[in-house]
Specification:
single chain, about 80% helix
């Protein structure tokens, strides 16, 4: 019974971490958007809402930590049957996303602390987040959806939803304001599905709540 119980705890960990990541990243994006309206690459920070940017930068590291846990738990949930090629893309895109997210936050923090923010610094931070981080997120979504569809981990509608979200993120990028909210929204949907499956699987297995 112990291996089965451990197996059930992994989806729960993935779901909990995914919910935390989705809420934290979504909150950071909202805070950034309300403090830098319009095209963030060219707009200036509203001084009355400078606190929102500072709070968003404090949230980002925790979002990245929860994302790494979410990614590791998802991979453990797929088991040894995963395709190594897709798994490599899955891991690579996830790691690059977190690294780019942290780099964008560090660049934005540097710009925020400058008395006269430079155009280069603002463009650099925004490009890292909206162009590179979001496109790596798109690859991660596509890889996860492909693994879920191939192994039957996710139902077909959920896998198709992930494919659609990934394609929108990789094509649209930063061209449409608020489009980056699709990534945390997708992570939230996946996490809630995993938690629901875990709740129904535990009584059927007889292991009960942990």
């Amino acid at each position: 019974m112990e291996p089965t119980t451990d197996r059930l705890k992994t989806p729960r960990a993935a779901g909990m971490a995914g919910v935390a990541f989705a809420l934290l990243l979504g909150a950071a994006i909202v805070l950034m958007r309300i403090s830098i309206p319009g095209d963030a690459a060219d707009a200036t920070i509203d001084q009355d809402r400078r606190w929102a940017v500072q709070l968003a930068l404090q949230i980002v590291p925790f979002a990245g930590i929860f994302f790494l846990w979410f990614m590791g738990a998802l991979r453990a949930h797929t088991g040894a049957a995963e395709d190594r090629f897709i798994a490599t893309v899955f891991l690579g895109s996830g790691f690059v996303f977190v690294a780019t997210l942290f780099a964008a936050a560090a660049a934005a923090g540097t710009v925020l602390n400058e008395e006269t923010p430079s155009d280069f610094g603002r463009h650099y931070a925004y490009t890292l987040l909206a162009t590179y981080a979001m496109r790596m997120a798109a690859v991660f979504v596509l890889a996860t959806s492909m693994i879920g569809r191939t192994l039957g981990v996710f139902p077909r509608p959920l896998a198709l939803l992930g494919t659609l979200v990934g394609l929108i993120l990789i094509v649209v990028g930063s061209g449409v304001p608020w489009s980056e909210m699709l990534f945390p929204a997708w992570a939230l949907v996946i996490s809630l599905y995993i938690l629901r499956v875990r709740r129904t699987a535990a009584p059927a297995d007889g292991s009960g709540p942990p």
